[in-house]
Amino acid sequence: MFFQQFLDIETEYRGYKKARFVVVPVPHEATTSYGTGAKRGPDAILRASRHIENFDEELGCEIYRQAPIHTLQPVAVKRLESRIAALLRDEKIPVILGGEHSLTTLGLKPIKKFYNNISVLQLDAHADLRDSYQGRKDSHACVMRRVLEICPAVQVGQRSISGEEWKFAKKTGQFRKIHWAGKLRALPEIVRQLSSNVYISIDVDVFDPGIVPAVGTPEPGGLSWYEVLEILKKVCSAKNVVGFDVVELSPRRDDLVSDFTVAKLVYKLMGYVS
Ligand SMILES: [Mn+2]
């Protein structure tokens, strides 16, 4: 159990009532198939966040002063849907910290009920379009297949897909909404494919593993820090981003870079959203 706040900020900006963003740590790991440790992700992100410069040099402000940030105690997956529903009723923007990727569908279900015209932007090395994996439909490797049962999705940064997923994507037309890593020329196209309300799901293995090595299923290639920021900035300026999750960090004792990079990503995205 931990009792940490996202960022090291004054008490008056941490309360629930004034909060624009509510950070929801979900230390969940049930179907990891390769490297393990995603359940320690939320704790590592929160710890690292306390060392982030609170002033954002790009936006020229202290984001948390305009958009205060409350952090919940860790939430169990079975309570996640109801917690998110409550946050939406209170007009908060949920920021879910994973944990493995399968929790995206749980966060998305109440969002879909609350907002019409919702779509998902997924940043991820993997397509995650399998119908089932290792006998489970709720595997992290199936999360986007489950998401597509809820709402449309645009996928960015992929460089790993199975033959079955390839066929599925071709057959359903999803293939046009996969923007492979290494050929990211289509930023306006990505924006066009998204609906007016957007939920963002970031599997941190979307980054080049040289940037974020601490992931369960690393893939060579991938996006740079500035490529990811450019995509997020563009989408946030064109769309109404109603929530996001950042998942699949598997922290390692000897690697502070990954934890810090992911924590900073969360704060950057809060800045773009607000
Ligand atoms: Mn992935």
From TrEMBL:
One of its GO terms (biological process) is putrescine biosynthetic process from arginine, via agmatine. This is Agmatinase. One of its GO terms (molecular function) is agmatinase activity. PROSITE patterns: ARGINASE_1, ARGINASE_2. Binds 2 manganese ions per subunit. Its cofactor is Mn(2+). Mn(2+) 2 binds at residues 124, 126. Pfam families: Arginase. InterPro entries: Agmatinase-rel (IPR005925), Ureohydrolase (IPR006035), Ureohydrolase_dom_sf (IPR023696), Ureohydrolase_Mn_BS (IPR020855). Keywords: Hydrolase, Manganese, Metal-binding. CDD domains: Agmatinase-like_2 (cd11593). Signal peptide: none annotated. The keyword Lipid biosynthesis does not apply. Mn(2+) 1 binds at residues 101, 128, 203, 205.
